[in-house]
Amino acid sequence: MLLATDLDGTFLGGRQADRLKLYRLIREQENIRLMFVTGRGIESVMPLLDNPVIPDPDYIICDVGATILNGQTLEPVQPIQAEIESRWPGTLVIQKRMRKVKGLRLQPVSQQRRCSFFYDELTDIDTVKRIADDLGLDVLLSAGRFIDILPKNINKGSTLKRLVKLMDFSTKDILVAGDTLNDRSLYDTHYKGVVVGAAEPALIDYTNGMPNVLQAKSQGAGGILESMKHFPEFSGYVNNESNNLTEDAQGDTQLLLMYHRLPYEMKEINGAEKKVSPKSPNGIIPSLLGFFSNGRTGAWIAWEEVRDKKMARADRYIDENKYPNLLASSIPLTKKEIEVFYKLFSKEAFWPVIFSFADKVRFNHEQWEQYVNVNRLFAERAAAEADKNATVWIHEYNLWMVPGILRQLRPDVKIGFFHHTAFPPADIFNIIPWRREIIGSMLQCDYIGFHIPRYVENFVDVVKSHIPIKVRSEQSCADRFLTYSCALGVDKMTREIDAGGRIIRLGAHPVGINMKNIRSIFAQASTQEKIKEMQKQREGKKIILSVERLDYVKGPLEKINAFQIFLERNPQLHGKVELINICTPPASGMKVYDKILAELEQAIGKINGKYARLDWVPIHFFFRSVPFEEVVTYYAIADVAWITPLRDGLNLVAKEYIGVQGLKPSADGVLVLSEFAGASVELSYAIRTNPYDIKDLVQGLEQALTLDENERKLRMERLFEQVTHYDIVNWGKAFMHELEHIGRGDNAPALR
């Protein structure tokens, strides 16, 4: 079989699931030969040849039939190319003759052996045809706006027929495919053909009644697959059960994910670039990937650092075997763009606002424009990739402006947004100069998820400070979250608002941990050996563990100062307690944290210098990225996890500690958790502490170290039940259920 297909709107068009299915079929079937037949010049075809998703063509007919090349070598196919060249008077001659025709504008495309123009209602088509005829040329009109001037009797169909004759292809094994009037000549060949769905009406009219042509219902690649099933000669290819075609999950729409990073990193191994797991993996990435493990179609959209944007990578498979219909679609950004967009603006303008540190805010209007531009790139990419009525799931404040831009470009798509950080009160959020633009964008979402009900209510308050809204429904929080005697507690949560006729649903979905991964690591013999070794080394001592990223919102200095007071108050515990402080460095180039590190190291040095003995150091400080496998061993040996951020959207460290402790036979670790971490409202059996009150910090630690064994075990048992039930898988499914069932009348409660 030879498939001779137009590109735009045909081979490259239609549903993503259909495109990938067709491409996979061609790659896997040795008896299918592929020919691109396009109006594009070879320069715009060449990027497709480097795309790992798109199968390589055997032949390329481009320039509307005026150029014919071997698809592997890109050499002209002779003598056909020479014959076409002999009929061409030269591009400049034609441009000169057409210069006086009103409404003609030269298209910015390759003009080899053809001249391509735009035309409008002022253009005298008869004059164009007369000039062309005088030069011995043909005129081809398409889509109501394009004119191609070509050598006499040269078009897509005629060049195809010449190649078929030259290569002695069987005419009964040829299928042609197109969607616009410049494909008309393909059907004049009388080979079997398909006009794909949503084709130009003029082409539909032209091919109507042709016995060898199917007018397909499905668009793009789906129409080609439909025609292969229709014609008996080709049906064996699509009905052959031996091929490895994977259907998209029945009933699932395409899902586009926008996340701050790709689910892999590119690394050079033995001179070749290969995909490897991220250096610092988290449970969110595998959870999100899980939505595609059943064959669901989609794209993972993230930024990727490049030296030259012209060298941006094409869409590619993430893992074709595990996720056969999932593509990585990266937004190429230079190192400078990432520094401005992420490391400078997002962290200096938005980060302090999100966590209510207004005194640390730095607003820069030029950087805001860069932020919007990057958001626009994400929105445009989603608009281009999305099938009709696709679902788009956007993650995090870095992409606040995407919903508004995307809604304008693609009003048909369903937009969900999950806010991974905290969301501040209205009087804090509203110091942002661009607050109206941000809120206006967010109100273009269909569903917005936050970690806890307090953040939902903060968002609603912000919206109320800008526009009048109607609260359509509320929900009690008491069945899962603390509502009273807790800094972040609320008793009711808004579930749905009406903002000027737009209905936006809201929900609380605290991110869970990857218990499957934790169980696997904990069960490894190497992990158990390491735990035993560390326990032996610290026998007779109580281990207090703190794990955090270096950030002022984590309150690292406040904790160290509290530990100094703890040592002063409890001299009987000298030599019997140790604080292990694991502090992960921030991203490189983020100078805002240099002062914090200097102060922290100075404070730790002062304490160790005052209290340390030959056989005891009170604080072990690790300022480095620690592999998660190693962190698990620290979780296992820690008697107390002292997690005391000044502010935190959620805090997964607290949940990870519980997840590891709950697997131990003793399961008697104690969690001391800041009231201002989002997780505090769902982890009711933790000892809550106020990190702004140094006395309370000390008392919380003292309480944890003096609890009796039965209470320690009871608390950990209850906490373990919580984190194992509401794990990362539950989080992802709950959010997606809410988003995908909007408008169906069967929404599940957001708190479940």
- Beta-strand fraction estimate: 15-25%
Which of globular, elongated, flat, extended, rod-shaped describes the shape? elongated
> Helix coverage percent of residues?
25-40%
**Whole-number average pLDDT?**
93
Structural class: alpha/beta
CATH architecture grouping of the largest domain: 3-Layer(aba) Sandwich
Number-wise, the strands total: 29
Rg over CA atoms: 32 Å
Q: How would you characterize this protein structure?
A:
The protein is of the alpha/beta class and 752 residues long. It folds into 4 domains: 2-87 and 153-239, Rossmann fold (3-Layer(aba) Sandwich); 104-152, no CATH class; 255-333 and 371-445, Rossmann fold (3-Layer(aba) Sandwich), CATH 3.40.50.2000; 515-725, Glycogen Phosphorylase B (Rossmann fold). It has a 10-stranded mixed sheet, sandwiched between helices. A 7-stranded mixed sheet has the order 4-3-2-1-9-10-11, sandwiched between helices. A hairpin with an 8-residue loop joins strand 16 (316-317) and strand 17. Helix 2 (16-28) packs across helix 10, helix 13 (335-354) packs across helix 14 (365-385) and helix 20 packs across helix 23 (628-637).
Features:
ten-stranded mixed β-sheet, 27 helices, 752 residues, seven-stranded mixed β-sheet, alpha/beta, elongated, Rossmann fold
Q: How are the secondary structure elements laid out?
A:
Elements: E1 2-5, H1 7-11, H2 16-28, E2 33-37, H3 42-49, E3 59-62, E4 67-70, H4 80-86, H5 91-98, E5 105-106, E6 115-118, H6 125-134, E7 137-142, E8 146-151, H7 156-167, E9 174-178, H8 184-187, E10 192-197, H9 201-207, E11 213-219, H10 220-230, H11 232-239, E12 255-258, E13 265-269, E14 272-276, H12 284-289, E15 298-305, E16 316-317, E17 326-333, H13 335-354, H14 365-385, E18 391-395, H15 402-409, E19 414-418, H16 426-429, H17 435-442, E20 447-450, H18 453-464, E21 470-476, E22 492-499, E23 502-508, H19 515-523, H20 525-537, E24 542-549, H21 556-569, E25 577-584, H22 594-611, E26 619-623, H23 628-637, E27 640-643, H24 652-661, E28 670-674, E29 687-689, H25 694-706, H26 709-725, H27 728-740
Parallel strand pairs: 1-2, 1-9, 2-3, 9-10, 10-11, 12-15, 12-18, 15-17, 18-19, 19-20, 20-23, 24-25, 24-27, 25-26, 27-28, 28-29
Antiparallel strand pairs: 3-4, 5-6, 6-8, 7-8, 13-14, 16-17, 21-22, 22-23
